[in-house]
């Protein structure tokens, strides 16, 4: 999860000021956590509750409760329009979204699953409480499975092969970058995030590559960072910097300690 949080915070400065290069300041005064971090932690909290309850019963209502409970504390963290209404409202039904919100929040499904299949299933459920469009679900399944594989010894060729069942991945970052425009759909940002991970040489490099594409930088970096964190691990100094941008409540949810 810290990989997603780091990507979100680093990318937050560049979401509306795209920078199509990799040699940018990794942290700056404007770096802040946004909806990607808040919802990543909300999904993590829901999955932890579900798993500590023995993986029994329906996960959907736990996700809905945690996403609303935690999400309502941060009304201005950058949610999309329909998601704001869903978070604030009493109607708990999904709204057929294929936005990348389903894929940016899903890393805990890959981190806590016991198999690729379970990662995909948990990812699917975490998506369909709001993003029940097939592309919304596919984006979440892809990132969840990639995070699981990255954390369980699969190499990049194997991860690329698995992801090619979902997306074509036929363009390199250098081919994507010149023409890439802001696109908050799963199908228009998840394959780009996967490619950033697959071409990266380390965690920081992956986040830099993800931001360098442009577009919805904090979310692309959150998705790519979640996979890279599982694959390479996260350097301690970067982890500490990321945590220093969170508040006590989010830290307590992530670490399980109240401070
Ligand atoms: Mg965001």
UniProtKB/TrEMBL annotation:
InterPro entries, per the entry: ADP-ribosylglycohydrolase, Ribosyl_crysJ1, Ribosyl_crysJ1_sf
Source organism: Candidatus Allocopromorpha excrementipullorum
Residues annotated to bind Mg(2+): 34-36, 216, 218-219
Entry keyword set: Magnesium, Metal-binding
Protein name: ADP-ribosylglycohydrolase family protein
GO MF terms held by the record: metal ion binding
Details of cofactor binding: Binds 2 magnesium ions per subunit.
PANTHER family in UniProt: ADP-RIBOSYLGLYCOHYDROLASE, ADP-RIBOSYLGLYCOHYDROLASE-RELATED
Gene3D superfamilies in the cross-refs: ADP-ribosylation/Crystallin J1 (1.10.4080.10)
Cofactor: Mg(2+)
